[in-house]
Amino acid sequence: MPRKQAPQIKDEKLYEDLRKQGNSKEKSARIANAHAAGTLHPRGTELQDRTKDDLYREARKIGIAGRSGMSKAELVKAIRGHG
Predict the structure, then answer these.
(1) CA 72 to CA 47: how far, in whole Å?
(2) What is the Cα–Cα distance from 31 to 45, expressed in whole angstroms?
(3) Residue ranges of the alpha helices (H) in the chain?
(4) Contact call for residues 80 and 59 (beta carbons, < 8 A)
(5) I need a labelling partner for 39 at 20 to 30 A (CA). Which of 1, 33, 46, 73 fits?
(6) How far apart are CA 47 and CA 82, in angstroms?
(7) What is the pLDDT of residues 3-39, one digit of tens each?
(8) Phi-psi bin for 46: left (phi > 0), alpha (psi -120 to 50), beta?
(9) How far apart are the first and last CA of the chain?
């Protein structure tokens, strides 16, 4: 059986800083790689400043169940709690 390859981190320093702040490995890797690729959301990580539609798309991307019935505040909470 082939061994699962660990994801490659594109910005190790940012990844380590995010981990020290208490973020999960998955979230830290996602943010560090998006930063390295130049695809971080233009408004940064302030979720409450993003539109409900944008939050919904983010929730869909990371696989949050029940997102279609969530308010903006619930989406923010669910995204923050993911990972």
Answers:
(1) 10
(2) 9
(3) 12-20, 25-37, 52-62, 72-81
(4) no
(5) 73
(6) 13
(7) 565 568 988 998 898 888 888 888 888 888 887 877 6
(8) beta
(9) 27
CA distances from 64 to 23, 25, 80 (A): 17, 17, 11
What pLDDT does 7 receive? 64
pTM across the whole model: 0.49
27: exposed, middle or buried (Cβ count in 10 Å: 0-12, 13-18, 19+): middle
39's tokens: 């695809």
Spatial neighbors of 68 by CB under 8 A, at least 6 apart, are: 56
pLDDT digits (tens, 9 = 90+) for 51-71: 899 899 989 988 999 999 999
| CB atoms near residue 45 (< 10 Å) | 12
